[in-house]
Amino acid sequence: TAADLSSRKTRDKLVSRVRAQQNLMTEIEFEWLRQWFVQGKKHASLHPYWNRPIGILCDSYSELERASSKIMDVLKVTSKNGPGETHVTEDLFDVLIESFSKISILRRSWRERYRDPIFGRIPEDERPFSCPCLDREETENLDLVVSQIRQWR
What is the pTM of this model? Predict the structure, then answer.
């Protein structure tokens, strides 16, 4: 029926948008923010033009994180209450599982990169420095989050 087709299109669009959001977050984190902060404070001071755009990217990343958190809340509620009239499908769970698994692997790779002995031999201001929107104590263990999503599914 037309209503079923419309509902399916809405679900497909939601999955597509969440996938795009997760891809954008991955792009911002690993291709922009981590690349910027790994180069050190000296590099940042030599390229002051980039300080504002990097700040905007941090703010945007934080907004995308909040949106992801809301999606997680919906998935959790849906798993407890059943799908009902929501547009949540298994594909939505899969998108987050795939995305968070990929991010977890990339973050492990970056942690290894930060342990490179070369950083101990270069001047302090050329060493990686903390990114305010990424390097936080409350950063979740994504492997645990993936496990939770799998249970909710």
Answer: 0.87
